[in-house]
């Protein structure tokens, strides 16, 4: 990790150095010294800036991809842990909410396999007591919304609907 960070730092310093010297040579042209070199090879310096910029972008992408992968794996394991504290029917309801962007009606939950209106009502009540979901009344229908904490954890983890989780 330190080598990759060092590579990124070196590329960034080179980029900023060449950019600074090229800018100085453009606004204060001089024919002698180090600045004179950049005045004489101004086009080549601009190409070097472009290549260094591409190199920095590639190095940043490489560095961040490893961290994003580790973060994604952590979120998935935490999401699985959250779901492990639920009963199978509660888990099915929560995963159904995740698949529907965190919102659904209670009547939709009662249509899940193995679910009745009474079971759906009891599960919704239990999940509401544990602050996993919020219930809002829309006429005779109850709209069920996954709480922000659970929504962030589960939707980011992209938990797929599976009985093995």
N- to C-terminal distance: 33 Å
- Strands of the widest sheet, in order across it, are 1-3-2
**How many strands in all?**
3
Q: What number is the mean pLDDT?
A: 80
Radius of gyration (CA) equals 28 Å
Category by helix and strand content: mainly alpha
**Gross geometry:** rod-shaped
Classify the beta-strand content into a percent band.
5-15%
> Number of helix segments?
7
Count of individual domains: 2
Question: What does this molecule look like?
Answer:
By secondary structure, the protein is mostly helical. The chain folds into 2 domains: 2-79, no CATH class; 85-157, Winged helix-like DNA-binding domain superfamily/Winged helix DNA-binding domain (Arc Repressor Mutant, subunit A), CATH 1.10.10. The protein is 71% helix and 9% strand. The chain has 7 helices and 3 strands, in the order H-H-H-H-E-H-H-E-E-H. The protein has helices at residues 2-27, 33-40, 42-84, 88-99, 106-110, 117-129, 148-157; strands spanning 103-105, 133-138, 141-146. The chain has a 3-stranded antiparallel beta sheet. Strand 2 (133-138) and strand 3 form a beta hairpin. Helix 1 packs across helix 2 (33-40) and helix 3 packs across helix 7. The chain is rod-shaped and about 85 Å long. It starts with a helix and ends in an 8-residue tail after the last helix.
